[in-house]
Each structure stands twice: as structure tokens, then as C-alpha cells.
């Protein structure tokens, strides 16, 4: 397959749905919350009862504009809502209120790892309910399906990219950056597993050098970044095989099955005219004043790319900066530590080292631990003042996460403060030298790299508490 790959160019465009974290739904007063008792968040509006009218939630529009600005989009002065008709048991009204030809955001782009990906548009719409299918968890062995309409009417922003990506890796990078952005600006949890962020991947292939795109297939049901990459890889191979055998790719929607690791045909892809879109008669077109846009622009928080650049300007490597930004909890914690005036270098070593390892091992977020930014800053200052060594710091940071004890208290209780008293270090150093006559002879004979061995022995004797600089100097003096 690898050599066949060289004959084709891959074209990918993503449609990403982000559930907006508003308090209430887009057109109804029901609480917008995941994980509640089924069908408990269902007002007559959500149920599509006759005679009810939708009322637009202003916060949804605010979040739509904020996201659009973060994605370098234009926010047109006017947008409107349209009805998209289709029948499905999770859609009681028989239509979805969406935006068709006048969306809230247009013409944006995102720079992802040096590549610019165009964003065609982003539009607001309502989510449908959720079907719990026959035989699935909860109704195992059943021959019927159930519907939970809590999700119906949840606000969504659908972000549609240009067909600008050329590999599964680029698609993944774009999706990850999009997730970072919606999380940092606070409009979406970005949780692929729970479905608060969902992605449809459109994929086609064409002979290398061609200017005409091939027919695309749309892949749904991808619920992790790695699954997205796997699904695209599978789909590329499937399409190449069809074309190589003289067949034609058909335009259709396919479902990714992450267990069997293949896509399966779900349905022929509808064209827009099949939905009979028309302007939603129950909602006025929306005028968005330039003042409104400016007000939101003024509140734009620092974006992931800006954060990475700021961290790099503090001396972090690009890799470290990216890893911290990827984990928002850690980045916010790190920012707090920096605000309190700690040295970025030492802070990063702790955060990327012991802290990140512990969190990964225990599957925790930093906020699940008892470590406060203040306590980490105090620990760092103890190291900078040479009260304790870096090694001792590494030993006690885990306890600080577990029980919240300040570093100074642990150091005092356990007698961990660094020995800088030259007299005490000299005594230990003399003992070490006397105990290793062979090494001393070798050192004196020119094997100066043995100094490290002696330093190690002294550190061992003092349980890591001796000041390494003082140890070096004293040993050199004794060994002559
Ligand atoms: P629809 O709404 O019917 O899915 P759109 O025209 O809005 O169709 O396109 C949806 C997505 O498909 C966009 O992200 C676009 O970039 C992508 N796309 C369009 N044509 C192709 C193609 N030939 N190959 C891959 N992706 C494509
Ligand atoms: Mg689509």
C-alpha cells in the first residue's frame, strides 16, 4: 500500500461540532447539562409542542462571536436562522434550527504547526436528542430503543474547514488546536469521549498533481484524536483500493468502528436541497453591531498559540511549551506560579517532571491534588536559597501533592535542610576519602573524573542534603 500512496494526494476537510457551555439551551430555558436524569431537561419548547416559540439565548451568540474571532473569522453584520427538515426519533419538531446561507462566522483560518488551514464558516444550531439503541448498555437484551431528549436544543457551533489538509496528521493537529482554543476561551469542554466536541471528516483522493478533487466520503463517529487518525488512514487505503481496481468512490456517509478498525457505509450523503432549507419564520434575522463585536474582542483571553510563544520567550523549549498548553489545568497552574514570581525554569522542571508523572500515573488533574501554586513557589524559593537541594525538592513534591503540607514544614519535620556548614561536610568527606584508598591513588595518578565518584559518596552519606557545590570544593581541597 505504501508505494501506492505515493501516486495519490489526500484531501481532507473537517466539520467540527462544539457544544457551547451556556447555562441554558439555545432556544429554551432548560438547563444545559450533561449526565442528568433522562428527559428531565425537556420543556415544551425542547419537545417541539405545537404553538411554542423559540427565543434565542444571547450567550450563545456571544460564544459564537468569541470563537469566530479566535479563529480569525469575519463576523457579518447580519446572520439568520434556517430550518433544516429531516425526520428522526431524536428530533421531535421534524426540523433542526440551524444557519444555512448567512452564518455567524465566515472566512477564517487557523495556523497549525506552520500550516494555514482555512475555515469556511462557523454556524450556530441546536443539537438533537440521544437514542439509546436496542441491546445497548442500560437496556441490554432489549428489542426496543429509548430516546433521551435532554441534549435536544443544546447549542452547537459547527466549524467547517476548507479542504486544506493533506494528511491524517495535519487533520489531527488541526483538531487538537481547535480543541485547545475552545477550551481556553471557555466556550466548550472539548471532550471527544463524552461527545461535547464531535468531528466529521471528509476525505477524498486524487492522482498526484491533479487539480480536481475526487469524490469524498464523510466519516462520522470518531471519538478520540487517535481514532480520527486511524479512521482517515483506513479511509485513504479503502479509496485507493477502489480506484486502483478501476472503480469509483461514491459520495456517502460512513461510520468509523474503532473496535473493528474500519469504516462502514451508513447512508448515501444527502445534498443540501434534500433538506428543504428555508428561513426560520419564528426568529428574526440577527443584527450584530460592530460595538458588540468589539466588546467581545476586548475580552478575548490569551489563545493557545500566544501562550506557547510566551512560554518559549521565558526559555521553555517548543516541546515543553506545547505539552503544558495541551493540558489546560497545568498551564493555568503554571501561570499562577509565574504570577507569584517563581523562576520559570525550576517550575517547569517540577511541572513537566515529578508533577506530570504523578498526575498521569494516578489519572488526576492538578486541581484534584492538594498542591497549591503558593506551595510550589515556596518550595522553589527554598531551593533557590540553598535551604534544600533540588533532589530533596523532588523527593517531597509528591507528599505536597498528596497532603498539601507546605515544603518548609516537611523540611523542618524531617530535618531535610541542606548542609552548607563546611565543617560538617569536611568530616564526611574525610571519612569517604579514607574509606577508598584505591580510588584516591587513581585520582592522584591522573584519573580526575573520579571526583564525581567521591561527590556521589558524600551525597549518599548525607542523604542528599549536602550542598553539591561545597562538596566539590572541599573534596578538591582534600584530594589535593
Ligand atoms: P456538507 O455540508 O454537505 O457536508 P460542505 O460543502 O459544507 O458539505 O463541505 C463539508 C466539508 O467537506 C468541508 O469541510 C469541506 O472542506 C470538505 N470537502 C469538500 N469537498 C471535499 C473533497 N473533495 N475532499 C475532501 N473534503 C472535501
Ligand atoms: Mg456535512
Structure description:
The chain has 480 residues and is of the alpha+beta class. The protein has 3 domains: 294 residues, no CATH class; 111 residues, no CATH class; 58 residues, Arc Repressor Mutant, subunit A (Orthogonal Bundle). It contains 17 helices and 15 strands. The strands form 4 sheets. Strands 5-6-9-1-10-11-12-13 form an 8-stranded mixed β-sheet. Strand 11, helix 5 and strand 12 form a beta-alpha-beta unit. Helix 4 packs antiparallel against helix 5, helix 7 packs across helix 8 and helix 14 packs across helix 16. The protein starts with a helix and ends with a helix. The model has no long low-confidence stretch (mean pLDDT 93). The site of magnesium ion has 2 residues, from loops.
Ligand catalogue: adenosine-5'-diphosphate, magnesium ion
Strands of the widest sheet, in order across it, are 5-6-9-1-10-11-12-13
Domains (count)? 3
- Largest β-sheet summary: 8 strands, mixed
The assigned structural class equals alpha+beta
Nearest-angstrom radius of gyration? Answer: 30 Å
Strand content: 15-25%
How would you state the average pLDDT, rounded?
93
Low-confidence stretches: none
Global shape = elongated
**Helical stretch count?**
17
The number of distinct β-strands equals 15
Helical content (DSSP H or I, runs of 4+): 40-55%
Distance between the termini: 67 Å
Amino acid at each position: 500500500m505504501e508505494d501506492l500512496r505515493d501516486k495519490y494526494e489526500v484531501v481532507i476537510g473537517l466539520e467540527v461540532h462544539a457544544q457551547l457551555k451556556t447555562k441554558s439551551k439555545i432556544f429554551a430555558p432548560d438547563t444545559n447539562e450533561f449526565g442528568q436524569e433522562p428527559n428531565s431537561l425537556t420543556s415544551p419548547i425542547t419537545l417541539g409542542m405545537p404553538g411554542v416559540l423559540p427565543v434565542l439565548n444571547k450567550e450563545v451568540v456571544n460564544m459564537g462571536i468569541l470563537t469566530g474571532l479566535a479563529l480569525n473569522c469575519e463576523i457579518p453584520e447580519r446572520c439568520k436562522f434556517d430550518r433544516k427538515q429531516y425526520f428522526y426519533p431524536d428530533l421531535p419538531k421534524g426540523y433542526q434550527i440551524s444557519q444555512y446561507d448567512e452564518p455567524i462566522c465566515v472566512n477564517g483560518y487557523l495556523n497549525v504547526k506552520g500550516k494555514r488551514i482555512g475555515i469556511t464558516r462557523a454556524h450556530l444550531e441546536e443539537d438533537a436528542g440521544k437514542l439509546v439503541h436496542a441491546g445497548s448498555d442500560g437496556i441490554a437484551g432489549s428489542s426496543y430503543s429509548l430516546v433521551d431528549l435532554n441534549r435536544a436544543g443544546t447549542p452547537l457551533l459547527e466549524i467547517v474547514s476548507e479542504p486544506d489538509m493533506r494528511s491524517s496528521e495535519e487533520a489531527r493537529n488541526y483538531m487538537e488546536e481547535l480543541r485547545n482554543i475552545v477550551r481556553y476561551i471557555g466556550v466548550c469542554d472539548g471532550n471527544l469521549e463524552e461527545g461535547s466536541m464531535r468531528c466529521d471528516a471528509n476525505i477524498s483522493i486524487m492522482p498526484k498533481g491533479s487539480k480536481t478533487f475526487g469524490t469524498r466520503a464523510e466519516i462520522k463517529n470518531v471519538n478520540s484524536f487517535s481514532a480520527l487518525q486511524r479512521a482517515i488512514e483506513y479511509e485513504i487505503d479503502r479509496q485507493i483500493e477502489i480506484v486502483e481496481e478501476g472503480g469509483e468512490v461514491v459520495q456517502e456517509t460512513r461510520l468509523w468502528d474503532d473496535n473493528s478498525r474500519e469504516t462502514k457505509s451508513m447512508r448515501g450523503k444527502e445534498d443540501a436541497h434534500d433538506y428543504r432549507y428555508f428561513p426560520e419564520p419564528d426568529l428574526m434575522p440577527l443584527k450584530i453591531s460592530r460595538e458588540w463585536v468589539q466588546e467581545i474582542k476586548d475580552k478575548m483571553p490569551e489563545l493557545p498559540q500566544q501562550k506557547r510563544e510566551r512560554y518559549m520567550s521565558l526559555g521553555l523549549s517548543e516541546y515543553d511549551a506545547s505539552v503544558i498548553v495541551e493540558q489546560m489545568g497545568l498551564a493555568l497552574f503554571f501561570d499562577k506560579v509565574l504570577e507569584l514570581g517563581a523562576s520559570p525554569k525550576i517550575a517547569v522542571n517540577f511541572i513537566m517532571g515529578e508533577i506530570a508523572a504523578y498526575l498521569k500515573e494516578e489519572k488526576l488533574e492538578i486541581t484534584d491534588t492538594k498542591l497549591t501554586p503558593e506551595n510550589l513557589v515556596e518550595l522553589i524559593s527554598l531551593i533557590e536559597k540553598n535551604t534544600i537541594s533540588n533532589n530533596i525538592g523532588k523527593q517531597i513534591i509528591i507528599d505536597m501533592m498528596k497532603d498539601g503540607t507546605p515544603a518548609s514544614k516537611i523540611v523542618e519535620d524531617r530535618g531535610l535542610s541542606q548542609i552548607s556548614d563546611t565543617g560538617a561536610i569536611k568530616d564526611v568527606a574525610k571519612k569517604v576519602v579514607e574509606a577508598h584508598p584505591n580510588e584516591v591513588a587513581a585520582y592522584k595518578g591522573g584519573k580526575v573524573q573520579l571526583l564525581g565518584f567521591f561527590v556521589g559518596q558524600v551525597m549518599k552519606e548525607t542523604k542528599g542534603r549536602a550542598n553539591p557545590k561545597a562538596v566539590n570544593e572541599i573534596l578538591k581541597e582534600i584530594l589535593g
